[in-house]
Write a structure and sequence with these properties.
Layout: H1 16-24, H2 33-46, H3 51-56, H4 58-64, H5 70-73, H6 78-84, H7 94-114, H8 117-122, E1 130-131, H9 145-156, H10 164-173, E2 177-178, H11 185-190
Parallel strand pairs: 1-2
Helix pairs in contact: 2-7, 2-10, 9-10
Length: 192
């Protein structure tokens, strides 16, 4: 139950974990590669599902995916994929699980080329968050020219299950785009 009377983005008001995620993580600029990888895995898993479903399984994903250590995930053998397909703590979709492994491998290729995944991804927004000014009642965009360009480049580099819509969600979650509504208390807190 919310008792603080703060104005928030309406999408987060469904359950307490959503509010906590909104208030502490969503839209906060991320420069840590392991956190970027975590969100890429979770957002890829979300395809066709709700973010609420994924948030509820986040602890299961942390356990199953070695706390999102991409170096370990990149080496997952097929025998472990078969174990994961039986794990009720995650989304048991073989294509999504295998995509996470492939994406971990490609993630490290990007690190080698750019010094870090963070350097690479922030280059698509000129190194600072895009500040949108969405008002209550307006629709959130599903993609942007930046998410289109990033998704196209990731696909060219061999990433899977990361189209422009999923990448736009990643950019929102990791603060490359500030999509908090202008009357949400977090919008001004995250505006640089």
């Amino acid at each position: 139950m919310i008792t603080d009377q703060k104005s928030r983005c309406p999408w987060c008001l469904g359950f307490p974990e959503y509010i906590t995620y909104h208030d502490t993580e969503w839209g906060v600029p991320v420069y840590d590669d392991q956190i970027h990888f975590e969100f890429l895995v979770l957002e890829s898993a979300q395809a066709g599902l709700s973010w609420a479903t994924i948030l509820k399984k986040r602890a299961g994903y942390r356990k199953a995916f070695a706390d999102f250590d991409y170096r370990i995930v990149a080496e997952f053998p097929e025998s472990y994929v078969q174990e994961l397909l039986q794990d009720p703590g995650i989304i048991r979709n073989a294509l999504k699980i295998r995509a996470a492994i492939t994406n971990a491998q490609r993630f490290m290729d990007i690190q080698q080329e750019f010094g870090s995944f963070s350097n690479y991804i922030w280059g698509f927004v000129g190194g600072k968050p895009i500040q949108n000014s969405l008002k209550r009642g307006e629709f959130y965009p599903a993609t942007s020219p930046e998410s289109d360009a990033l998704a196209k480049d990731l696909k060219k580099r061999g990433f899977k299950f990361l189209g422009s819509t999923i990448i736009y969600a990643h950019m929102q979650a990791t603060g490359l785009i500030n999509d908090h509504l202008t009357d949400c208390y977090r919008h001004s807190e995250l505006k640089n």
